[in-house]
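Training component of the fellowship. As part of building independent skills, the fellow (R.M.) carried out the full modelling exercise for a liganded target. The chosen ligand was iron/sulfur cluster. The inputs are recorded below so that the supervisory panel can assess the work.
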Amino acid sequence: MSACTALPDAFLPARGQREVFCGLTGIVWLHRKIQDAFFLVVGSRTCAHLLQSAAGVMIFAEPRFATAIIEERDLAGRADADAELDRVVAALLARRPDIRLLFLVGSCPSEVIKLDLGRAAARLDRSCAPGVRVLSWSGSGIETTFTEGEDACLAALVPELPAAAGDAAPSLLVAGALAEVVEDQMARLFAAIGIAPVRFLPPRRATALPPVGPQTRVLLAQPWLAATARALGERGAKVIPAPFPLGAEGTQLWLAAAAAAFGIAPARVVQVTAPAMARAQQALAPHRARLAGQRVFLFPDSQIEVPLARFLARELGMAPVEIGTPYLHRFHLAPELALLGEGAPVREDQDVERQLDRCRAARPDLVVCGLGLANPLEAEGMATKWSIELVFTPIQGFEQAGDLAHLFARPLDRRARLRV
Amino acid sequence: MQLSFWTYEGPPHVGAMRVAAAMRDVHYVLHAPQGDTYADLLFTMIERRASRPPVTYTTFRARDLGADTASLFKDAVRDAYARFRPQALLVGASCTAELIQDDPGGLARALGLPVPVVALELPAYQRKENWGAAETFYQLVRACAGPPGPRPARPAGVLPCCNLLGPASLGFRHRDDVTEIAGLLAGLGIGVNVVAPLDASPADLARLRDADFNVVLYPEIADTAARWLERSFGQPTVRTVPIGVAATRAFIAEIAAVAGVDPEGSLRTDECRLPWFSRSVDSTYLTGKRVFVFGDATHAIAAARIADGELGFDVVGLGSYSREFARDLRAAAAELGLDPLITDDMAEVEARIVALQPELVLGTQMERHVAKRLGIPCAVISAPVHVQDFPARRAPQMGFEGANVLFDTCVQPLMMGLEEHLLTMFREDFEFRDDAPPSHLGAAAPPPPPTMSQPLSASSLRWAPEAERELGKVPFFVRGKARRNTERFAAERGLSAITVETLYDAKAHFAH
Ligand code: SF4
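Fellow's submitted model of the complex:
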């Protein structure tokens, strides 16, 4: 079943302004996930400002991320980059003795001036041993879009994972940051299905890295992990093709794909997940009644757009008008695209002005977009759903299927209530 | 490199955006990578702006770097002009584009567009947001105001008029201040020629020269432009910032002198409740409250003066992140006999707050969070702004109504007067036990952290257990002060241990 309505104009890969975050933004959820890690961005005041503004994390407490702001003297060659980094890192570690894993995070400026953070991390890793590990990855906007920062971070962790013993039994590695509540639910389901051992990447503590080896089967929990999947492949692990665990159907198929890889019959998955499935269906029903037939337009943001559109179309009966995504990893998304059906209006990349023109022309019932566009579109009379909630709130799994649907029902519900 | 956890100001191109977004018929093409588009949400979310800020980003990527970022920039300018048809175009580079040196100004001019193209040179590795806003406003004024020259004399019988300079997007209550000040000027019989950058178009900037004088409401943004207008058109500048009763009166006097009008009617402060509220007996408890002030220079200086002279507080600390106005802040601190704090490192500000143990913090959203953690009441008086700083009601900081707003702002976070007296009287009752937080902070108010009750100095001062117990009987809201005074008293006398005797000696000493 697919409820997509194709747009009349051809889906040309228009290249124009993108309205998306850079990979640094991933730090906002990664620092909460890996609780003994610290993220030091080597960048500009813009990077620092993005980090504190982008996600509304302005709690102004002692955070587990900071920016080493490059200054004029660093550029003019009056300061030695290595010495400066050493000084900043020493000051940081003195102030935060709890840090066990330090990520040096590259940015556009650090890349353009060709600061070799990989080399710097290796040097600092030696000098800070054994108490602190130092790794690097890049969240720069010229290389990474929003959730690709998480991909870069996890890919940087992969070479650090201990090697699984040669005679180890097959194990499951779930890759991609999930909210703890979701992770715990999934762990219980895997156990009930009979898949063990199951480990998660990123781990909650940097000191507890999961082992990896040829017997490791990888199940991606997020659609943006192309580099991580590649790195795990290089360690001999095999990725299990699966749709993503959004919605009741998506979650069940995701679990079933893992089960199949472990030689467990689909019937077992159906049996184990039946109660959760029923609860999810029950939670979805009222939202489906509200949302069925509503036309939805998705702006590109996190790469979750394709699995999300599949959920909206198949489980809530919504009609995607356009499914924008910053990148389309056809390999990892093949199961999703198959579910979405032929002719789904998926559009990779972005020219935000022309996309807004299309959106205005289409007059969808609901627009899924970033915070920079939401209020302006609301002011034009369109109902919107902020896409950022899709990466910051627990939406995966059976128990969250209703919550996920509710995110889309609420803007419409609100409009129906207001009489001002 | 500078280790930064939080920053008070964004990069300079965000300052340029604040000017562009405040104006009409201006468009800004920014050579920048995709992530820099985050800045849009400052405007659409914090200010609840109903349209996108007038900014086009080139969003170049790594693979463009080797190829042709320059033609990408030219295409972006051409497309933006065709789509938005602005009266003037701003072009510039963000921190990353500054490094690739594409010369946005030259590229844009080469397109031969039929509108002024203002090339912004905002050194991202040296300067910050407010400087960027000031420079942008100045460059726009220069480009649009027409050739320098003397103004014709104002014909007899024509009302004097002025320009209000400085209000911008994401300013702290700028829009409400403009309404307040325009009303005040109307009362003086003075017209407003142009308000800029807020709601002004480039065509309005061309009319700036028609005013008799300029009023700089926010020097952080308008000072550079006002100096140029003064030089170019001989327009005098009014620099008194009308925040607070005394400052508003001084402002009116200065305006009246410059405009040649009679100030008398406007100097009456019947509508201003601050003077009477401050004198009413309920306000007695405000006397000598220790206040720490931090913000941009304009708002911090004004708040310190109000706290000192109009609310009867004791200003114990004054600081600002506006390095460009450090001199003004130092002068204001000197007036109050204080050691000024000029820093953009929030950790330093926090350390100063901890060391000073104020009873009230007047600061930015960042000090609000610090104060919350420390259990100190706090009010926000300055940018950087948060969605809360855009209240639905009108809440100016300037003029007499602004003074009323500031009275409420500064006093409401404190314990209500009677409540504090009752606490003192009934402090033996269990409801008022030491660790009960002030009721107005709500049940969720955190207990003061240990830093506030531990000795602050690393000196060898030791509290005898019975002295520590005696200190515990002092009501919690003055305990910090008692501890600090006692330690200072002991340190000055070279004592190594504090006994109950020392405690009461110190009390007598400071009770003058
Ligand atoms: S896009 Fe580049 S310069 Fe901008 S915030 Fe991201 S990493 Fe920093």
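The panel noted the following from the submitted structure. Chain B touches chain A through 57 residues (CB under 8 Å). The longest helix of chain B spans residues 476-492.
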